[in-house]
Structure formats: structure tokens, C-alpha cells
Amino acid sequence: MTAPQDSQKKNLILVARDQWFDPRDLLAIAEEIERNADDIDTVLVSRNDRDNTVPGLSWDRPTLTVSFGMLGQFNPRRGRVFRNKAISKLDQYSRSLAAGIAMPRTERFKAGAAYDEALWGEFVIFKPLSLKMSSKGDSAQLIRTARLNALSHSKIPADHPLAQGPALVQQFVDTGKNPTHWRVLTLFGEALYATMNRSPIERPDLDADDQTIENAIIEPKHPLIKERFATKDRITFFQDAAMFDFARSVYAAFPSIPLQGCDILRDQRDGKLYLIEINAGGNTWHFSSEIFKKIRDALGGRDAFVGQLGAWKVAAKVLIEKTRAFAD
Fold it and tell me: Is 307 a domain residue?
């Protein structure tokens, strides 16, 4: 193959946080791009780099920047930028609905408001609005909608999630006796890896009394589950074409967010899929992230995650496509 003239070359700049990425990951993707696209030079930078301190970076070329998090000090001189940044759950809900992506009905809780079972169903999930609090997995509560209607600030116990700050009400999607959610990590909509997180603890029957229902553990990532059960008993890899197609469709609702950790529910009654969130901040690169090390090691390590769906080849292919389409 004849090498293109330098004037025909394009820059692909990849920006990543060291705490979330092992540099070897992006280097492996860059090498895969080099083998398949001699019209693209891939440049790896950190948030601490500046536009005039990156060796070999020519700003005379059409450029695309993909940042798996905030850009930090790096300020591209030209070209389109795709970057990860946090998006509130309520914004994710409104944008998903506008794009035709199914999400459970979600609103900020308002004490004294009427919650109609015809709209919400018999049960709802009650959880903190704060992304930081809800990410722990121990604050989500299953509650009958009728009970929610009676809730007011004057009756909330000190240890109730609402006492800690604003809360969300979310329609309950029943994934079965063992609560389950599916995570599909996508890059520009293409799946890089996929895991199923299933609670080994059965939730109560839905005809149980209110106290039993409201005290139930309904999050597969609840701290007690992590303490009592081995990783392999609650998290596994999976492949499901319908789930991957759904995750791909989610990207259309958030086209500026390159890396999306799509958390998905499947209703056990009819198999319908619902998006819960996309984890838009970017801290989902669990091929090498520190926060996921114990789980990653238990599931076979970095190579198992990369090998499940051929992540580096998938990433290289979609990055080549995006660079050729958007570099300017």
C-alpha cells in the first residue's frame, strides 16, 4: 500500500486519566489503528499535557480528539472533540425519552405529590439523586407506590435516604427473583465488553408486607452482597445480540459521549429492555481501572476483558471510522 502524503494524514488524539487507564491499553489500540489505517496518526496525551508540549503532533492536519473524561489542561487547537462528562440522571432520562430510548419513568421526589399507580405501577424504586450516593448500591429501596404517597418530610426517619438529600422516584422494572442488571461498555455505540451483575439473594415475593419489601436488598452491587459472595457468584460475562443492539441505539441519544457504560434492565414479563444510565463521566474503563481491579482479577484479568469481544480491534475500527468522518 502506498503511504499517503503527509498533507493527507489525519490526527487522532486520545486523552485519558492515568487513574482510569493503563497506558498499554491505548497503546495497543493505537498500534491496531496503525496496522489498519496509514492515513491516521494516533497521539496519546494526558489531561496534564498542553497543546504545545506533545512531541510529533502536527496541528496542520485535520484532527479529531476523543477524551475519556474531562480534557484538563489539554486544549486542542483545531478539530472536533468528543469527550466524556457527567450527566445527571434526570437529564439522561429526558434525553433518552426524546431519542426514543426506553427508560423507567423517573422523577425527582416531591413530598406531598400524588403518584398514580396507573402511571408508575404498584411499586417504585426510591433512591438518592446524588450520583455519588446512588453508586454505592446500598441506598435503593423498593416501595409500594401507595406508601410513597404517604411519605412526607415530617415522617422520614433520620436513616432514610431522603433525609440525606434529594431523591429520585423510578418505576420498578422486575428483572426476576434475583435482581439483575447488565452492563455493556460501548465506544461510539460498539460493545467492548459485557457483564451481567446478578444478586445471589432473592428479593421477597411482591405480595410480602410493606416492611419486608422496603427492607429488601434489591441492588446486585449492595455492599452486603459483595461481602458475602464471591465475585464469580454474582458477576459473569455475557453475549446477547439484542442487548448489544439496544446499547448501540443508546449512543444516538448521547452522540457527544464516546465511552458509555450502559446499565440495562430486562423485564422478566415481556423481555423489554430499559436503560438505567450510561455512566457518562468515563470511569468505566474496567480493562485497567484501579476501582475494578479485584473484580477484574476474579474474572480472569485484563486479557479476559479484552478477549471477550475483541475490544482492541473493535475500538480501533470505530475510531478509524470516526476519524475519517469527523477530523477537520
Answer: no
